[in-house]
Specification:
By secondary structure, this protein is an alpha/beta fold. The protein has two domains: about 5-125, NAD(P)-binding Rossmann-like Domain (Rossmann fold, 3-Layer(aba) Sandwich); about 130-285 and about 315-325, Dihydrodipicolinate Reductase, domain 2 (2-Layer Sandwich). Helix content is about 35%, strand content about 30%. The protein has helices at about 15-25, 40-50, 60-65, 80-90, 105-115, 130-140, 175-195, 285-300, 310-325; strands at about 5-10, 30-35, 55, 70-75, 95, 120-125, 150-160, 195-205, 210-220, 225-235, 240-250, 250-255, 265-270, 275-280. The strands form two sheets. The chain has an eight-stranded mixed β-sheet with strand order 8-9-10-7-11-12-13-14. A six-stranded parallel β-sheet has the order 3-2-1-4-5-6, with helices on both faces. Strand 4 (about 70-75), helix 4 and strand 5 (about 95) form a beta-alpha-beta unit. Helix 4 (about 80-90) packs parallel to helix 5 and helix 5 runs antiparallel to helix 9 (about 310-325). Its EC number is 1.1.99.28. Keywords: NAD, Oxidoreductase. Belongs to the Gfo/Idh/MocA family. It is an enzyme of class 1 (oxidoreductase).
Length: about 325
């Protein structure tokens, strides 16, 4: 890439490619989507024509395009490792849509390929680049809460969102609530409290594909003695939840919309009847735009990043352990 331009090729033509890459790239002057690939080249051409993308074809055509600096892998998690490693071997940097891969073994293969090829691989935990998330982590680490006594995360998608035919209900494609939203919770908790182990896990399974969890409750234990209860679910009420609640010896924190801060995220810290912090996410700030701006900076200067594939391996290993503790096999 040049100092001023990151040229992106996309694997996949689903809605996430549009929302997470094509649309935000129009708001970042230094990022340009120049190629798209699909198993069906005609589908890639239709996508390219719709968004004014120059080149379209199969995945190989994107990897061999000499003008592509980074490949965005917007495919089901079960094929992330195959195509991310291929792109890295072809000399491209890679951004994988979350989760990084189907399991810890595949995640490590991506990280190893990045290291071997001296290229960068990233996972698309875009929310980590939003100023709200950075402020949330700052408050948690500040000591204002005192000793942490209880942590609870509820990431429950409204029950009507994930219905029959949705890829999140397909075990062959890496479906399941922990894969879809539980990975966010694990990533956020690791950022706040460090490394963890799974204490317990229980899952409600999808009748049509019992490999897939519709709803999983699990408990993580961290090195400093903190435990966190997590709910990852496709069976939420009509409003759903994306909340984090922390009780400390000095104060209590409650945050909403923590994995999509641009949807009106709020942060409130109270001590008894006293309100210590009452903040909202900045209007109009997009975590997807922030992610692209961040990638340009990291690839241009070597700046530190919370999106490194090497760091995301531990998140996927915990996802595996959550499934094992619930009596399921990793993806």
């Amino acid at each position: 890439m040049t100092a001023s331009q990151l040229r992106v090729g996309i694997f996949g033509t689903g809605g996430i490619a549009e929302r997470a890459m094509v649309e935000p790239s129009t708001l970042v002057e230094s990022v340009q989507v120049i190629a798209v690939g699909s198993r069906d080249p005609e589908r890639a051409r239709a996508f390219a024509d719709r968004f004014g993308i120059e080149a379209a074809g199969d995945y190989a055509s994107v990897m061999t395009n000499p003008d592509v600096d980074l490949v965005y892998v917007a495919l089901p998690p079960t094929v992330h490792a195959r195509w991310a490693v291929a792109a890295l071997d072809a000399g491209k940097h890679v951004l994988c849509e979350k989760p990084l891969a189907a399991n810890g073994t595949d995640a490590r293969a991506i990280a190893d390929a990045a290291r071997a090829n001296r290229r960068s691989a990233f996972v698309g935990f875009h929310y980590r680049l939003h100023s709200f998330t950075q402020r949330l982590l700052e408050v948690i680490r500040s000591g204002v809460l005192g000793d942490i006594e209880d942590v609870e995360i509820d990431f429950s998608i409204p029950h009507f969102v994930v219905g029959p035919g949705n890829i999140r209900l397909n075990g062959d494609l890496g479906g399941g609530a922990v894969m879809d939203v539980g990975c966010y919770a694990i990533d956020l908790l690791r950022a706040a409290f460090g490394e963890a182990a799974v204490l317990s896990s229980s899952a409600e399974l999808y009748d049509d594909d019992p490999r897939v969890d519709l709803h999983t409750d699990f408990v993580l234990s961290f090195d400093d003695g903190i435990t966190a209860r997590v709910r990852a679910s496709f069976l939420g009420d009509d409003e759903g939840q994306m909340s984090l609640h922390i009780v400390g010896s000095s104060a209590t924190l409650h945050a909403t919309s923590v994995i999509v801060p641009q949807w009106g995220a709020t942060l409130r810290v109270t001590a008894g009847e006293d309100v210590l912090i009452d903040e909202k996410a900045v209007d109009g700030e997009s975590s997807y735009v922030a992610q692209l701006q961040h990638l340009v900076e990291v690839l241009g200067s070597g700046a530190a990043t919370p999106l490194r594939a090497q760091d995301a391996v531990a998140t996927m290993e915990l996802v595996d352990d959550v499934y094992r503790a619930a009596g399921l096999q990793p993806r």
